[in-house]
Amino acid sequence: PRDPALNFFEEAVRWGEITGDWFFEALPARDGSIAQLVRLRSNQVRVKPGKAGRPAGYVYDRNGCGDQVEFVWADPEMPLPTTGQNGVIAGRYASPLDDWYGMSPLRAAKDDIISEYNAIRYDHRFFRNGARPDIAVLFKGSLSDQERAKNKESWQDFKGVDNSHKAAILSGDADI
């Protein structure tokens, strides 16, 4: 009650920019209205999925060590429960990857930086190798479905930047 509304909304936006979500515990007054809002750390809140795309409640890990508190959903259309359970007022940025948690604008920047970093690592390894593949494997004749599946499975160990430019040993009549 002593903080101006502007500070409250700035706090919500600040958390949203970092984590994509913001959660506030709504402490009820005796008449069912909200007496106080307490900020919850977004990274310690877990959404309990409900029906029709709405949360059934929230679980908050107070200190990150398993001391969990369950909250009910604070539906703006309904008064807060007066049974001792507090509600949660939640907000989030839109996320194409998750129905329950938001995606922060900083996540997009982080993903872009990581993608660029891995592309540069791959380019360095590729050009260090003379800008050519290590090996070309040509099979004489045709492969059976089992041989083809076995060779395809063996290539799975060579995916990713860290595993690039390694030699593979394949079965079958191959010309290298």
Could you outline the blueprint of secondary structure elements for this entry?
Blueprint: H1 5-19, E1 21-28, E2 34-40, E3 45-49, E4 55-61, E5 68-73, E6 87-92, H2 105-128, E7 138-139, H3 145-154, E8 174-175
Parallel strand pairs: 5-6
Antiparallel strand pairs: 1-2, 1-6, 3-4, 4-5, 7-8
Provide an overview of this structure.
With 176 residues, the protein is of the alpha+beta class. It is built from three helices and eight strands, in the order αββββββαβαβ. The protein has a six-stranded mixed beta sheet with strand order 2-1-6-5-4-3. A hairpin with a 5-residue loop joins strand 1 and strand 2 (34-40). The longest helix has 24 residues, at 105-128. It is elongated. The mean pLDDT is 76.
The N- and C-terminal alpha carbons lie at a distance of 76 Å
Please tell me what the overall shape is: elongated
Structural class: alpha+beta
The number of strands is 8
Largest sheet: 6 strands, mixed
Tally of helical runs: 3
Which sequence of strands runs across the widest sheet?
2-1-6-5-4-3
Strand content: 15-25%
Q: What is the radius of gyration?
A: 27 Å
State the helicity in percent bands: 25-40%
Order of helices and strands: HEEEEEEHEHE
Regions with pLDDT < 50 over 5+ consecutive residues? none
The chain-level mean pLDDT equals 76
